[in-house]
Amino acid sequence: MKLFKNNIRLTLGNLALIATCSVFSIFAGCQEEANDYAPQQPAIDGFVFADDVAPANLVAHWDFENTTKEKKSGMEGVATNISYAEGIKGNAYKGSSNGFVTYATTPGTNLKDLNSFTTTLWIKTDRHTGGAQAVFMLPRTSDFWGNLFFTIEGNSTTDDKMLVKTHFGGQWAEFTNDLRINGIYGKWTHFAFSYDAATSKYTMYVNGTALTIPVSMSDRKNGTAPLGNITMTDASRFIIGGFQQQLGTPWGTPDSWMLPYTGMLDEMRIYNKALAATEVGAIYKLEAKGR
Q1: Hey, is 270 helix, strand or coil?
Q2: pLDDT digits over 60-86, tens only?
Q3: Other Cβ atoms closer than 10 A to 86
Q4: Where is the signal peptide (predicted)?
């Protein structure tokens, strides 16, 4: 009973302190004491918010809160036939059959200097037929293919398996046949893919979990030697929701199979290192909670 009464007194005292501070909020010291009683968000894998994960290594971030602005550089893109809708965290990019966002120069910081990287993003997209839809691309002016991109292939079958491809510094990782991602059409799904120059290893994560992939895909080679650093060659501009050919010169016009991304996209991040599995898992769990 004594402990119960003491708890009541403590609670009433805290309420009185908070009430007093709300009346006399001009006193900074009192405000700081009141904030001590504010509820704290529980940490997940050592992080409270997704922004707390490797902030020094984050080189580009789009949150799509009714804007095309890349948050690290503050650069605004030029939007064509896109809109915004409710996303996994706030609002999200919503594409269309002729929609994309273009950037006149490379947004973010040091995208051109990536040797290792991790890209994380949420997508929600329905099955499409025909060619490939490009979710984003860091272009390369001297080549048909861009430096870094993520595409979704068309699916004219009745199965529920999505064929995705990633490309980075001249390296392909194609999730074909038995590697296709099952059961994610029409659902918010978190993808992350990374390359670690120190180990020459590629990893793909879906909803915070690393996929089991063949050694031929995970272990990257330059001939018989480990690949080491990748290079973003002649990197220029940036596009969300399309191929670099949608940018026109010097790439010309898109081939008929090069389709804009018609789905939704949210919380896209690019880091200049291969994040640890726990860091990728934390980003997934935190963003899924709106954090």
Answers
A1: strand
A2: 999 999 999 999 999 999 999 999 999
A3: 11
A4: 1-28
